[in-house]
Amino acid sequence: LDPTNLDCLIGKARLLILRERYEEAVATAQTAVAQHPENASARAVLAQALDWQGDTQAAFEQALQAVEVDDANAYAFAVLAEVQADRGNMAGAMRAAQRSLELDRQSAMAHRNMGYALEHQGLYVQALQEYEKAAQLEPSVFLYYLNMGYTYMAMQDLDQAISKFAIAAEKDPHSAMALDALGWTHLLAGDIEQAIPILKQATEADPK
User: CB-hemisphere CA count at 13 Å for 122?
Assistant: First the structure.
C-alpha cells in the first residue's frame, strides 16, 4: 500500500469497513482527507467509516462536505444517502440516492444505497430490485447479498433470507457479518444443527 496514493487509501478504508474494523477504517480515511482535503471521495469514505462506526452526526457532516467539494461525485451522494437513512431522514436519503444514480447508473454503491433507503421505508420489493442491480454490477461483493437477506428477513421469508446469507458467506467466508446473519437465521428457522457451527465460525472470524 502506497501511503500517499489516494485510491489505495480509499480502497483500504472501504475494505476495513466491510471487515468491521471501524477504528482502522476511520484512521485510514482521516489520512486520506488530511493528504487530500479537497477530494470528495476521501471525505465520503470517512463519512462512511464514521457512519458504520455509529457516529452518524460526524458522518453526516463529512458527507455534506464531500458533496459540497464536488457536487458531481456519485460516490459522495451514495454515501450521503446511506448516512441520511441511518439518521432517519428518508426524504434526504432518497434525494441523495437519486442524485447518485443520475450521476452514475453503473454505480453498484448507488443502487445499493437506493435499496437501503427503500428498505428503511418498508418498500421491500423495490429495495430487492436495487440490491439485485448492485449485485449484477459487482457480483463478488458480499454486502449486496447480505442486504437482500436482511430484506427477506423483514418480509419474514426465512428460506430466501438463508439463501442470500449463504451466498454472502460464500462470497466472503471471513465476514463475521455474513456468517452471523446466516447462523442466526438458521436458528430462527429451527435448524440448530446447521446454526451452531456457523455461529462458531462467526465468533472465530470476529471474537468481539
Answer: 0
- HEC profile for 124-178? HHHHHHHHHHHHHHCCCCHHHHHHHHHHHHHCCCHHHHHHHHHHHHHHCCCCHHH
Q: What is the distance between the alpha carbons of residues 157 and 155, in angstroms, rounded to a whole number?
A: 5
Q: Which residues make Cβ contacts (< 8 Å) with residue 12, sequence separation at least 6?
A: 1, 28
| Distances, alpha carbon 43 to alpha carbons 54, 68, 77, 81, 127, in Å | 17, 10, 11, 14, 26
Q: In order along the chain (208 residues), what is the average pLDDT of each group of 10 residues?
A: 84 92 96 95 97 96 97 96 94 94 94 93 96 96 96 97 97 92 94 92 77
